[in-house]
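Field: COMPLEX_INPUT
Field: COMPONENT_COUNT = two
Field: RESIDUE_TOTAL = 153
Field: MODE = joint
Values follow.
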Amino acid sequence: MDLGSQEKIKKLADEHDRDKLLVVLGAPDAEAAEIAAETIVFGDPTYAGALAEAQLGLDVYHVLEDEIQSEVPDDVWEDQVGVMADTLEAEDLAEAVRNMRTKEGNEED
Amino acid sequence: MRELLEGKKVVALGERDGVPGPAIEACVEAAGGDVVLSATECFV
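Field: COMPLEX_OUTPUT
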């Protein structure tokens, strides 16, 4: 994840109630989505940015996940995402990000 | 059922080769979320 984005996200996590803060990703492939989700939940795995070892534990979703799409009006979805939803591997992306959410939930137990 | 996004503060972290930030932002706001950060990353 871009180092500037990491700094901004860390600042937002400090400013806002983390239960009300959520990240929605638009990564193009499962590997990128997994790394971004891991950074959000567990910290920057490369230890390069402000989120190194931050373990924010924020909720993170990919925009192509059903949980997100189901809340967006159909006309907006078609205008904004439509073509990319057909082009990208939505299931792989969803699984990559969902796995990070599940892993985070397990580690809280 | 609108629960996940409505009333939430959302970071829209898009990517140039995937779904860009402004598109995510438009979707989130249409669903009742409040976008506090929107970015489109580009990895070369």
